[in-house]
Amino acid sequence: MPTNVTPQYRKVESQFREATTTQQKIAALQEMLSIMPKHKGTDHLRAQHRTRLSKLMAELEGPTPGGSGGRTEPFSLPKEGGGRATLIGPTNVGKSLILAQATGAKTKVGAYALSTQEPVPGMLPYEDVHIQLVDTPPISNPGTQSRLYGLLRSTDVFVIVVDLSMDVIEQIDEVFSALKDWEFQLLKRGEQPDEDNPWRSKPTILMGNKADIPGALDQYQILEDTFESDYPIVMASAEEEVGLEDLALEVFRALDVIRVYTKSPRQKLEEFEKTDPLVLPAESTVAEAAEKLHRELGRGLKYAVLWGMSGKFEGQRVGRGHHLTDGDIIEIHA
Questions:
Q1: Pair 210, 220: CB distance under 8 Å
Q2: Which of 204, 219, 258, 332 holds its CA 20 to 30 A away from the CA of 58?
Q3: DSSP string of 179-213?
Q4: How many CA atoms lie within 13 A of 261 on its CB side?
Q5: Residue 218 burial (10 A CB sphere; 0-12, 13-18, 19+)
Q6: Whole-number Å distance between alpha carbons of 29 and 100
Q7: Is residue 66 part of a domain?
Q8: How far apart are CA 9 and CA 43, in angstroms?
Q9: What is the pTM of this model?
Q10: What pLDDT, in 10s, does the model give residues 237-253?
Q11: What is the pLDDT of residues 254-305, one digit of tens each?
């Protein structure tokens, strides 16, 4: 049966054949799958592409060939907390010190190129939630690029770090170019992710580090003048522990999540303390909050009692489809 694929598909297919890196092949295959017509004539071709894609992803995200002792692949980090933000940048811009100062994680800090060879996670506090912050090897290091790609795919927010004691535009261009080669879309203010390929679309924050070094403010001004209308920008000095709270705030905003607090029906409101919130995507419903808390609660949910900005009044009874806002308190009844 003929496949009857479109000219757009043929163009991407040519890009796949010409691709020289694993990342480019993966990006092309995913686009081919997304635009391929869905009918019986394409079933076999679709299956072939999925098999190819699985093998390529295993190459990036699986155990390192030749590894011994069952060592876990360090680039396949489990997600933790309210989301994942990843520090990306050229060598020696201070990403490791940012991670250490912002999260307390033990990381190798060195004033020499390529001191970070593997990703290192830490937990970045923002008010009453923690967000996973990951330090990574330099974006231009060919020895780790293919494995880094898999980690970046699973990241929620990109934090591009540059050194304010050097040419910031040159550094930004280096990082932007590498991410563009991997088909990532750096979301500007107000832009929405690609619904067909959400892994490509990443909210992006620019962070100028080493603000304590003479001349840094001039480079920060260039960074701000060039990019402030498109991306959130944070000025920081990891050495002086300046700007880390601003980073946490911008990451939380970029994640586009809400905190919802759950109260037991047996607990009085005046005795309730807002701690350990559920972290949910913005616009989540009462049903989704109940499901996140416990699957059985989601299934058996009858209604919830609500205190917060999404309600018309305090103690309002709301149904499964009610949309919640940041800071709401709900009492689930199943």
A1: no
A2: 204
A3: HHHTT-EEEPTTPPP-SS-GGGEEEEEEEEE-TTS
A4: 17
A5: exposed
A6: 38
A7: no
A8: 15
A9: 0.79
A10: 999 999 999 999 999 99
A11: 999 999 999 999 999 999 999 999 999 999 999 999 999 988 888 899 999 9
- Do 279 and 319 belong together in one domain? yes
Q: How high is the pLDDT of residue 274?
A: 93
Supply the DSSP symbol for 237: B
| DSSP-assigned letters across all residues of 67-88 | --TTPPPTT-PPP-BT-EEEEE
CATH number at residue 286: 3.10.20.30
pLDDT at 21 over 70: yes
- Tokens, residue 88: 């990306």
277: closest CA among 298, 255, 292, 296? 292
Task: State whether 116 and 28 are in the same domain.
Answer: no
Q: Quick one: tokens of 318?
A: 């709301």
Give the pLDDT band (50/70/90) at residue 70.
Answer: very low
Q: What is the domain range of residue 43?
A: 7-61
Q: Are residues 241 and 315 in the same domain?
A: no
pLDDT band at 112 (very low <50, low <70, confident <90, very high): very low
Residues 239 and 98 in one domain: yes
Count Cβ atoms below 10 Å from residue 12 Cβ, excluding itself: 21
* Cβ-contact 289, 260 below 8 angstroms: yes
